[in-house]
Amino acid sequence: MFDVIVIGGGHAGVEAAHAVFRQGLSCCLVTFSTETVGQMSCNPAIGGLGKSHLVREVDALGGIMAQATDMSGIQYRTLNTRKGFAVQALRVQCDRDEYKKAIQQILDLTTIEIIEDEVVDLAVTNSKAEGVVLGSGQTIKAKKIILTTGTFLNGVMYTGDTNTQGGRVGDKSAIPLSKRLYELDLPMGRLKTGTPARIKLSSINLSAMDEQPGETPTPHMSLLKPPTTQLRQISCYITRTNKQTHQIISDNTHLSAMYSGQISGIGPRYCPSIEDKVNKFSDKDSHQIFIEPEGLTKDLVYPNGISTSLPKKVQEEFIRSIKGLEECEIEEYGYAVEYDFIDPRSLHQTLETKFIENLYLAGQINGTTGYEEASAQGLVAGINAGQKILNKPDVVFLRNEAYIGVLIDDLTLHGVTEPYRMFTSRAEFRLMLSQDTARQRLTERGFGLGLVDKATHTSFQEQEAIYQNFLTSLKKKKIIEHDKSTPAIDFLKRTDLSKSTIQKTINLGDDDQALFDRAANEIKYQGYIAKQLREVASAQKHEETTIPKNTNYTLMKGLSNEVVERLTKSQPSTLGQAGRLEGITPAAINLISINIKKNNTPSKATSH
């Protein structure tokens, strides 16, 4: 028997398994193919707006995505540099093969047992998951099970009027497992995602496109374990669709699987197919396409921006109408994939299902899209499965302490009507949640949970001590202006002076650049952050007041039918969660609070 079985070797699965391992527990990971563990199924990049924040938080808690990114990164670019530090985001182009290799190398250093087989059934007794049944007929028992099936749960791929069973090209679907989940009466539905054609790099005219180099000096994704070496850095390129491209697509939209009625699942609004872009934004003459190399030694690019399910012949025609792609050779055609997901409102914030004890869900099965969202969920599921086995409190991240908390709260409270993608705008306390502050927010907690090893924690503490000494020294420095001596930190609050000007004035060396940048951001935004902290404190009482399970809202006089319906459907676990539901007024929260006090002395939420 294992402590935990993880089903699926994608981004959620590997992060869950590694979190279980770090807690000192036994873990088995079951996957269709050991060769594809850690594979990047879609675009060859990690991070980006809202997403790098999740990666850095996983990293701060000892996770592995950021490390693998640095072991395979071939271009680093910080996005939103003209905006405030809290919404800036690092995006890393990766060598697809090297990323998968890095994940597998990291897992090889653990005691995680990887089994190549298909899970065809779950062993469930009295609404408690006890193990899995493999395609080989073997039954494996475990105390906890984490399901991370990605797009493989009854996955079907569509190109024009052709459809094939599978979660991605070359891999089959998990059909028996999907049927079993329906039998267990879990609330399920269908979602859709898509991918563009893959094109031979050698067949592209890059000179006709705009070059997009990476930034220098090259940064790194992992802050907890910075890399000692990096791969050779290369450029990406930008081209655009045109009127001819749009006309070809428009003339053939009826042949797209998305528009022909074959697909019932809803696709991601923020990563639409090229058919969607042309039809929904008919006023635009062109759309940007990023030509992203798939590796240093691979003759293949990922044309980000032209995801499609049009027939192969139409794909060839519209792609070759694009500047620089006139003579291109298509290695693999684009397709849409439709798959089963489970309504995440059926989950506790630990990601354990409300209906089946010991069963946890993470990744696209919960209605999300993106590697980073999957990784964060895998970490949360792995942590909580382990903590429950160890008889320790549940681990729930709050919205004011991590984007991970925003992600899980949004999913479990609101559910999804389309594949969920993280954005900085989803976090109301985003000034406190910069991608660069993840270590300060979460590493101590990760060490306390057994997720961060002692050596890494000691190194982190030493770096913090260096920074505090630097900050003390900085606060003592003065700048003479108009024959008046003024503390240097007062200048950092001003908007009429650049950081580089102040740095030169107070004679700081290049070695202190990172320390100075951190101090400058903290000092510049300290007033705004203090305001957000006051808002957090005022809301904390509601966040800590739990609502008893199975509360009957129909018995509460004064609540409207609409409010009762919303509360009954969502079953919020705290007053804070209830208050974030659409249509729930402060007056309704007051009534619920009064009823809780009347019927029950409220306990404090054990989120830590």
Main features:
four-stranded antiparallel β-sheet; seven-stranded mixed β-sheet; 22 strands; Elongation Factor Tu (Ef-tu), domain 3; alpha+beta; FAD/NAD(P)-binding domain; 608 residues
How is the secondary structure organized here?
Layout lengths: L1 E6 L3 H12 L4 E5 L13 E3 L3 H10 L4 H8 E7 L9 E6 L1 H13 L4 E4 L2 E7 L2 E7 L4 E9 L8 E4 L2 E4 L9 H9 L4 E8 L2 E2 L10 E3 L23 E5 L2 H10 L21 H7 L7 E6 L7 E4 L7 H8 L10 E3 L2 E8 L16 E3 L9 H19 L13 H12 L23 H11 L5 H23 L1 E4 L2 E4 H4 L7 H7 L7 H32 L16 H10 L4 H5 L6 H14 L9
Helix pairs in contact: 1-9, 2-9, 2-11, 3-4, 6-8, 11-12
Describe this structure in words.
- The radius of gyration is 25 Å and the shape is globular.
- The chain is an alpha+beta fold and 608 residues long.
- The protein has helices at residues 11-22, 51-60, 65-72, 96-108, 175-183, 243-252, 274-280, 312-319, 371-389, 403-414, 438-448, 454-476, 488-491, 499-505, 513-544, 561-570, 575-579, 586-599, and strands at residues 2-7, 27-31, 45-47, 73-79, 89-94, 113-116, 119-125, 128-134, 139-147, 156-159, 162-165, 188-195, 198-199, 210-212, 236-240, 288-293, 301-304, 330-332, 335-342, 359-361, 478-481, 484-487.
- Helix 1 (11-22) runs parallel beside helix 9 and helix 6 (243-252) runs antiparallel to helix 8 (312-319).
- The longest helix has 32 residues, at 513-544.
- It is built from 18 helices and 22 strands.
- The model is unreliable at 601-608 (pLDDT under 50).
- 35% of the residues lie in helices and 18% in strands.
- The chain starts with a strand and ends in a 9-residue tail after the last helix.
- The strands form six sheets. Strands 1, 2, 6, 7, 8, 9 and 20 form a seven-stranded mixed sheet that branches.
- The protein folds into four domains: 2-194 and 338-448, 3-Layer(bba) Sandwich (FAD/NAD(P)-binding domain); 198-336, Elongation Factor Tu (Ef-tu), domain 3, CATH 2.40.30; 478-540, no CATH class; 545-599, Orthogonal Bundle (DNA polymerase, domain 1), CATH 1.10.150.570.
